[in-house]
TrEMBL record:
<feature type="compositionally biased region" description="Basic and acidic residues">
    <location>
        <begin position="419"/>
        <end position="428"/>
    </location>
</feature>
<comment type="similarity">
    <text>Belongs to the UTP5 family.</text>
</comment>
<dbReference type="Pfam" id="PF00400">
    <property type="entry name" value="WD40"/>
</dbReference>
<feature type="region of interest" description="Disordered">
    <location>
        <begin position="602"/>
        <end position="662"/>
    </location>
</feature>
<keyword id="KW-0853">WD repeat</keyword>
<dbReference type="Pfam" id="PF04003">
    <property type="entry name" value="Utp12"/>
</dbReference>
<dbReference type="InterPro" id="IPR052414">
    <property type="entry name" value="U3_snoRNA-assoc_WDR"/>
</dbReference>
<feature type="compositionally biased region" description="Acidic residues">
    <location>
        <begin position="650"/>
        <end position="662"/>
    </location>
</feature>
<feature type="compositionally biased region" description="Acidic residues">
    <location>
        <begin position="602"/>
        <end position="638"/>
    </location>
</feature>
<protein>
    <submittedName>
        <fullName>WD repeat domain 43</fullName>
    </submittedName>
</protein>
<dbReference type="InterPro" id="IPR001680">
    <property type="entry name" value="WD40_rpt"/>
</dbReference>
<dbReference type="GO" id="GO:0000462">
    <property type="term" value="P:maturation of SSU-rRNA from tricistronic rRNA transcript (SSU-rRNA, 5.8S rRNA, LSU-rRNA)"/>
</dbReference>
<keyword id="KW-0539">Nucleus</keyword>
<dbReference type="GO" id="GO:0005730">
    <property type="term" value="C:nucleolus"/>
</dbReference>
<dbReference type="InterPro" id="IPR015943">
    <property type="entry name" value="WD40/YVTN_repeat-like_dom_sf"/>
</dbReference>
<feature type="domain" description="Small-subunit processome Utp12">
    <location>
        <begin position="476"/>
        <end position="577"/>
    </location>
</feature>
<feature type="compositionally biased region" description="Basic and acidic residues">
    <location>
        <begin position="639"/>
        <end position="649"/>
    </location>
</feature>
Amino acid sequence: MAAHAGGSTQLLPCIFSPKPRQYLALCAQDGRLRVWNTDSKSLHQEYVPSAHLSATCTCIAWGPCRTVKEGPKKKKRRSEAGQSEEKADLLAMGTAAGTVLIYSAAKGALHCTLDGGHSGGVNCVQWHPEDSLLYSGSDDTNIIEWDLQTGKMRRQKCSDWERNIGSATWSKWKADRAAVTSLCVSHDGKLLLSAGQIIKMWDLDTKEVYRKFTGHSTAVTTLCFATTRPPDSNGLYFLSGAAHDRLLSVWQVREDGKDKNSVVSFTLTDEPQHIDLVTSNSKEEPVKLAVVCKDGQLHLFEHFLNGPCKKPLSPVCTVQMSDTKVSPVPIPLLAAVLGADSRTVLLSYGNHLQPVMEKVEINTSERHVCLTRDVQTSLSLSMETTVSKVKTPIVNTKSKVLVPGLPGHQAPVKGTARGSEKRKKDTDTKEMSIAERLGEIDLSTVTSEKGAPKGMASLQTDNFAVLLVQGLESDDPNILNKVFQTRKENIIKKTVARLPLPAVLPLLEQITKRLQGHPFMAALMVRWLKAVIMHHTSYLSSLPDLVTQLGVLYHMIESRVKMFQKLTKLHGKLYLLMTQVATSDSGNTVAEVDHTAKLVYEEESSDEDEASGDEGLPGDDSDNWEEDEEVVMDEDENPDSRTESKANGEEDMEHENESEEE
């Protein structure tokens, strides 16, 4: 099985050679390939690629064992000539630059370079079990079939007429919309599994999709066939593991095509880093698994594959390693392979620069086994001999050196200049601290002006995500409070979407703490919680211990939801009271009505009316209206009130008409 870097997890490739497990190949952080001999437990070979710093090794895979000619030697006897031993020779290495290097362990040199096919970094390489063919998957979403005899892409089968006119096509095809992160070839060499997030099974003769499977919520990093039965017998199974996924899924290739979901799951403590299995040839034979997780633990499984199983299966035995100190420190396991006996396991532990290989017998009747080792005494090299061979080169101030990572990534090298120039360059190249970065970026008041550049929004979102990850790792309340104070939904959604998956659970823990605090902060945290659930539900649902990790948040939300109905009733009653109080206050504020009469009419007796005769006619100047006198008095006293008297003239005329009718 091929070892790969695992995408964002940056797992270093580490893999044993095929049986008899003579070599262990590792690619360390410095980009060098080291081949260790498992029998002598010593460094067998070391290979430094020409572009090992810019084009780091991302995946490695041993080719099938073959008979190797190791140069001119003494003539052997006839009895010895017939006993030619097959050894592991070729090792394929995929690089971040898109090339595939073929290294020969027998020659101790580079066999050939496969380039010109991929435009992105190579994520996985897989050998054909019989022919000298190699398959590679890349970030450019393509799969290429390489021919090791020619060192180029293999041509598809075509007629002589097509070959003459130049219409023959190469064996390169688009596998998926996303990057191809894992490959696996069946034992008979007829089927090929490829995966990004969706798993596809290809027919290698026609290069067409045979079956599709739902896959995982994250990038698939492991694919391996578990049985050797034909696919038309409902007995073909394969397993898959994904980044940040603590479950190994087993898929069944059914004849009726109803096989889109996994049938069995194996529970792990972390994402798988290295897998070795003993395949099952019949229903009576169990599948045996040895899985090394990212946390350095080894899990052993044994299961009969015969249809679906609802509950996830726990390991038969879990192996951990620690040192012999008073306060023991765990020693990480790098890789493990099963031996001929079910209890014998070949382990590799320690670090990638100086691994320790050991064959141990494990008592599988115990569920948990802890092995104690003194790693310092097991190492054969000392630090003194290593340091004495290192020479520090004299570098010019204008020189630049490539660092491990993406192609073209450069970092300035500090020269040996003295005086003010050195101090000036040191101040220029000095990175800003987190406090200075927070001071320059005001996260609480984000303004989008028309004159701002187009990339400002994405740059700000990147700063939010980087600062949030730094705050979660350091548990710094100042950084977290700065980030959590933003209220813009768009920025919150983009920041949560850019978070790496290992930071999701720490973010939920911080949100849970702040939800229990001040109501103002709880109102802000609800927006972050909503964004996390929208973007990372698939990842959270894949965690086996999700209930225990989110139990506090669940109970808090449930208790507040129970009080919500009572609070809504209280809110309705208070609303009615407030509206009544508001209406009564508005009634009291109405302007008071002037109750003084505008017109006063005094009715005289009938005798006086008859005596007066026509004195009450409108044409008579001597009428007894008190109003006219009052108006004249007002006009004399206040000349500004003349306008009011004019306005009231019409009312006076109406009252005079009424008196005439009477």
